[in-house]
Amino acid sequence: MESILNSFIEGLKNEKILYNRCNQCKKNFLPPTYHCPTCGNDKLEIKEAQKEGTIETFTVVHVAPTDFVKEAPYIVGIVQLNDDLRIMARIKSTQNENINVGDKVKAAFDKKKQDASILFFTF
């Protein structure tokens, strides 16, 4: 499992969202795994997702985990990517933007550390 997750993390470092596509049932899924969660097949392709999507749901985090206390309040949501995939990530906006379910967003990457890249979505 570690190597498949490493490829996903490496993809993020290179500003790519990687996912699996099952060669048997043709389902797309995230996060990448060794077997299709739908049919159990182990013949999978690693593909790159489009970086655009639609907000399906979101919440405002007021009480944040220790590493993010200084950033609260912030928004986390589920984004339906254009590849029939869903991913949970932070959604960043300017102070005067209202966020609504159905809004179109695009992926962006924050390189806080040299060896890591954090995925978020913006307008």
From TrEMBL:
Pfam families: OB_ChsH2_C, zf-ChsH2. Residues 48-110 form the ChsH2 C-terminal OB-fold domain. Gene3D superfamilies: 6.10.30.10. Residues 10-45 form the ChsH2 rubredoxin-like zinc ribbon domain. This is Zn-ribbon domain-containing OB-fold protein.
